[in-house]
Design brief:
By secondary structure, the protein is mainly alpha-helical. The protein has one domain: Up-down Bundle (Four Helix Bundle (Hemerythrin (Met), subunit A)), CATH 1.20.120.80. 74% of the residues lie in helices and 3% in strands. A two-stranded antiparallel sheet has the order 1-2. A hairpin with a 2-residue loop joins strand 1 and strand 2. Helix 4 runs antiparallel to helix 5 and helix 6 packs antiparallel against helix 7. The relative contact order is 0.14.
Amino acid sequence: MNRNDSENSWQSATSDWSADKQVLSMSWGKLMMWIFLLSDTFIFSIFLIGYMTARMSTTELWPNSSEVFALTIAGQHMPLILIAIMTFILITSSGTMAMAVNFAYQGKKKIAVYLLLATALLGISFVGMQAFEWTKLIVEEGVRPWSNPMGAPQFGASFFMITGFHGLHVSAGVILLLVVAKRVHQGRYDKKGFQIVEITGLYWHFVDLVWVFIFAFFYLW
């Protein structure tokens, strides 16, 4: 490549970037979502590593999750039953979200809207159950972020920080789902614009995946 060809290539690339053209294989919206999810991965990783460090370094008794998060239903003691239901709800919501993306790209807006709303409803159910879980732990067990009558005080801080941060993500995702569903229903997106549904799906799948790690490290350990 001679000097003129090199200069022309550089000028062409500069022109594309300055004109805000798509010079990558993915849209700007999807790229920005991936960057956001990557940064969020680091934050959740730090939280979980901090939790594991606190648990392994404490000399006080760490509460048994199977007992702390158990419910008594019809006289039967059921360990982690609520957490299992919450996990099932999020896994199901990933399926409805994936179908919403598929039908949106097929141009079947009505079905896509229903699936987006179903995903949002599942998310609301999850947050509601998490609120019940928090209430039970605070009111009945007396756990606080700074104290824990059942043993290690770090338990409360770890629990409220990790599940609260995740619950905030789920709540934000529900709002995003409702906004996108409304706009799809109003016909504000063309076929290319349906990529926003896919971007929303990326966020929602990330939230679901993070919960799997929280479930494994916090509730099953």
